[in-house]
């Protein structure tokens, strides 16, 4: 889950042939009549530009503005700007649904600079000037155009494969429209989220709305910074810091990397205690990264009556404890879903309801279809096809063995009579 993070290496060595790309600005009508349309400046392969930007694939209206946003953008002491909660935000809650201002190819342009500048110029003044205040971690020698530097610092990976509608499924047979190339999207607000190795939010791209949803992975307190992850944070501290430095050019200063403030010189004992906190966290993250391959498997358990009933539930509850400890909530939904299914297979309605509700709350934005499926089972748990499967199998076996025993007895009676 959890969201698509910032690209590992958004710009590998290959480069694009510019003439086959088309610069188009989409203007999405605002739902409020008095507001101007919402612009998205796109640089897309001509063929994709034609299909994606056809009337069928463009939303008829922009996402409505929230009149009472749960966030504000503030300056931070060491990380530039950041996004902060203005009130309590519940786990799974939508924080913001936003259209990108720029959509660009993942690989660099052969004739870079003018194309980048033209892209910036194709935005209306208000959006262009806000975009130009965004972070730019690339030196001018590397990215002569500030627009390119801003894109490389901020762009989130977008998949532009048009949504699978009945119509385009029929047209292409399997719904594959042949657009496998990835793109980057720049968002004026979501991109203000700084990285944390214990993020409290994630984002999810929705091609049918041409927008990304930012949502809470756990409860966020008023005034708390809203953070996402730019790299795989189940890696060790050294590995993730090296990756952030290489790809995003900053040394992470989040509390999971620096469990104590950098300021005053610290004693040898304090240093040793920090080192032990870091090594414990590395070990926890390593365990979480490999949990599903090193701990009892739900799939095997769900078809194997020889394994104890609580094998997976006990193990998954331990994983959830570790997830809380490391603030690795982007992994939570995997365990919540399997816990709910374990209790369904055990026919334990109270536990099933508890974990299913937890799962729905956490995944309704990441995977709304699966959340709907669980809502259906909550209405009537017995509709789940493997409801109480273990007990039913045991009853069947008992019946079988009773039946074969009486059958054998019948035989022997006949033999000895
Ligand atoms: C996508 S921007 C985030 C918003 C940015 N702070 C701003 O002012 O617009 C990424 C940049 O923010 C800073 N940043 C993000 N997360 C950070 C972290 N955990 N530690 C230090 N700097 C961070 C880095 O300068 C990075 O290049």
UniProtKB/TrEMBL annotation:
One matching Pfam family: SET
Domain of life, source organism: Eukaryota
Residue ranges constituting the SET domain according to the UniProt record: 69-231
InterPro entries, sorted: SET_dom, SET_dom_sf, SET_domain_protein
Protein name as catalogued: SET domain-containing protein
């Amino acid at each position: 889950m959890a969201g698509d993070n910032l690209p590992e290496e958004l710009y590998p060595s290959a480069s694009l042939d510019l003439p086959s790309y088309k610069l188009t600005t989409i203007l999405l009508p605002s739902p409020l009549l008095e507001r101007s349309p919402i612009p998205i400046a796109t640089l897309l392969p001509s063929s994709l530009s034609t299909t994606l930007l056809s009337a069928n694939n463009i939303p008829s209206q922009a996402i409505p503005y929230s009149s009472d946003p749960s966030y504000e953008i503030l300056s931070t002491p060491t990380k530039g700007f950041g996004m902060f909660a203005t009130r309590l935000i519940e786990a799974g809650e939508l924080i913001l649904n936003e259209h990108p201002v720029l959509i660009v190819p993942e690989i660099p342009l052969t004739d870079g600079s003018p194309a980048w500048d033209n892209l910036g110029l194709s935005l209306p003044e208000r959006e262009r000037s806000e975009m130009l205040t965004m972070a730019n971690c690339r030196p001018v020698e590397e990215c002569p155009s500030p627009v390119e530097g801003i894109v490389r610092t901020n762009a989130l990976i977008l998949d532009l494969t048009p949504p699978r509608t009945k119509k385009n499924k029929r047209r292409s047979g399997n719904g594959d429209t042949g657009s496998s190339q990835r793109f980057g999207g720049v968002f004026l607000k979501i991109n203000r989220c700084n990285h944390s190795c214990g993020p409290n939010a994630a984002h999810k791209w929705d091609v049918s709305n041409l927008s990304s949803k930012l949502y809470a992975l756990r409860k966020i307190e008023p005034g708390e910074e809203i953070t996402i992850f730019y790299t795989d944070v189940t890696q060790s501290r050294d590995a993730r810091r090296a990756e952030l430095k290489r790809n995003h050019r900053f040394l992470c200063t989040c509390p999971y990397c620096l469990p104590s403030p950098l300021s005053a010189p610290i004693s040898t004992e304090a240093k040793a205690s920090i080192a032990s906190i870091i090594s414990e966290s590395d070990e926890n993250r390593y365990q979480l990264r490999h949990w599903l391959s090193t701990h009892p498997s739900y799939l095997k358990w769900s078809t194997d009556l020889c394994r104890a009933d609580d094998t997976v539930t006990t193990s998954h509850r331990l994983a959830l404890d570790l997830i809380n400890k490391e603030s690795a909530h982007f992994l939570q939904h995997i365990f919540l879903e399997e816990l709910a299914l374990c209790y369904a297979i055990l026919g334990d309605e109270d536990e099933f309801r508890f974990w299913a509700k937890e799962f729905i709350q956490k995944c309704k934005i990441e995977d709304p279809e699966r959340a709907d499926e669980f809502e259906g089972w909550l209405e009537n748990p017995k509709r789940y096809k493997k409801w109480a499967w273990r007990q039913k199998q045991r009853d069947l076996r008992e019946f079988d063995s009773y039946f074969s025993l009486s059958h054998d007895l019948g035989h022997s009676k006949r033999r000895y009579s």
